[in-house]
Amino acid sequence: xxxxxxxxxxxxxxxxxxxxxxxxxxxxxxxxxxxxxxxxxxxxxxxxxxxxxxxxxxxxxxxxxxxxxxxxxxxxxxxxxxxxxxxxxxxxxxxxxxxxxxxxxxxxxxxxxxxxxxxxxxxxxxxxxxxxxxxxxxxxxxxxxxxxxxxxxxxxxxxxxxxxxxxxxxxxxxxxxxxxxxxxxxxxxxxxxxxxxxxxxxxxxxxxxxxxxxxxxxxxxxxxxxxxxxxxxxxxxxxxxxxxxxxxxxxxxxxxxxxxxxxxxxxxxxxxxxxxxxxxxxxx
Length: 284
Fold this sequence. Notes:
Layout: E1 3-5, E2 11-12, E3 27-29, E4 31-32, E5 47-48, E6 53-57, E7 63-64, E8 79-83, H1 88-92, H2 98-102, H3 106-120, E9 146-147, E10 150-151, H4 152-165, E11 174-175, H5 177-196, E12 217-221, H6 233-249, E13 261-268, E14 277-283
Helix pairs in contact: 4-6
């Protein structure tokens, strides 16, 4: 039989007051719960210890196991007997919702979502990521964007317009950025080989997303002259367009009627006795 303190309810093995918790001098018999048995079919000895109490400081709220003033926090001698309440346990054990768990990470998720949208919409090209996207063109001496006041990228567009102007309606070709990127990579590699004797690392058209490789026509045209020989970009575009047309019409292996896309790159070599113009053209 077990005993408990009549003041604080603490169980004791023997009826031997005072209580070693609160110091009270009176015990009572504890009640063993009926009908509670262990897995082996015998009484497990569970004891109903009754109501449990704490002593709470009336001034600062500090809880104490014994009625043993003063308060260990504020020194007050005013301790009040209070029944222990476990109503908050269920609330403490409730599983938080996924939103509560994810809330601290929402800013990071927002940043990841914005970056994903920038890549998905093409605002940021995938090629800036290592190993993703088209290979970057190799370094080559000279200029690929502008030289001697001539906008080379605008000249590339002008060449495309001149080529289409001389074609029939059913032979028109669209300007394809993937073919242009492939042409730029090849052209720069050849310029580096010409001036620096650097063996170019050739990339296949599939690495640029070119999906018409079976009918691909790709060729480096001989230098069309020195940049200083042309009055402006329009004159240079006229000469390049004429060179490409002559190459196609003079080849028995090219069926112009099967080609629907094209791209090209213009690169001007370094000023070493004259800036040589190099052209690489691709169509499919």
